[in-house]
Amino acid sequence: MAKQAKAETIEVATQEVVTKVAAPKKPTKPSWEIKDRVYFLKGKKTPLTYTIPGKHTRKHALLYFDEKSGKQREIKYATNQDSPLVDEQNGECTMGHIRFDNGTLKVDKSKQNLQKLLSIYHPLKGRAYEEYSAVEEAIDELDVLTHQVEAMTAAMSMEVDFGEAILRVELGSKVNDMSSKEIKRDVLLFARQNPSLFLSLANDENVQLRNFGIRATELGIINLSSDQRSFTWGANGRKLMSIPFDENPYSAFAAWLKTDEGVEVYRSIDKKL
Q1: For the whole model, what pTM was predicted?
Q2: CA separation (Å) from 254 to 61, 207, 262?
Q3: Given this model, what pLDDT does residue 74 score?
Q4: Please, what are the domains in the chain?
Q5: Measured CA distances, 163 to 152, 157, 166, 191 (Å)
Q6: Helix or strand or coil: residue 159?
Q7: Is the dihedral of CA 47, 48, 53, 59 positive or negative?
Q8: DSSP 54-67
Q9: What is the number of helices (H) and of strands (E) in the chain?
Q10: pLDDT for 58-106, tens place per residue?
């Protein structure tokens, strides 16, 4: 009798079916947002009133170049129309005035025609006025604060002599009567109040040399002629250098001190200082 073959049991691993779920699409921000808008005159101008043209005339061309159609389109602010584009306006138009009060114009979100005229189409945008942007203002403020931090950091680590040289640009000979602490304090204040100018002076290699020349003149080691055209030795009147026309005497002297002849003079003055 034939033996019955044992049936082999084969285990098959169950496979998990992975269903990929598409990530939800982030809602795209509309190209034009319905909101209240504020416009301001450039250059921080704040006249009592300032009016800009609201319709196309020979004197004031209010035309917008449409790149899609390749045509110039006339614009006009009409209070009873939905669009500021003349070719999209229908019927009789009621003209409106565009007036800034104290340098500012606030436009309610209900006035979409005026907002679009000012934000998109008007040729004076960017020239006479700008639209307020909280983001752009935050970026500008961040730039200012970053600049202040850079200037204050440089001021904190600055040697007193260098600080004196920078302050002399602003205060002149008044720095001669200031103590080291007063110089350090005023350097920090200068850096905080005018960081751009401070950093410019801090990076100017001639600032200390100009201060060197001013101190030498104040102490009578060298003399600047009354016509500010030459420097001479204070002791014997021997001429050191001529000052080029239309140049600041001490800037010219600072540049001259870096020449071969000037280096020797610098060493001699430095010993006396």
Answers
A1: 0.46
A2: 54, 8, 9
A3: 95
A4: 37-132 (no CATH), 134-203 (no CATH), 205-273 (3.30.250)
A5: 12, 10, 5, 11
A6: coil
A7: negative
A8: -B--SSS--EEEET
A9: 8, 10
A10: 999 999 999 999 999 999 999 999 999 999 999 999 999 999 999 999 9
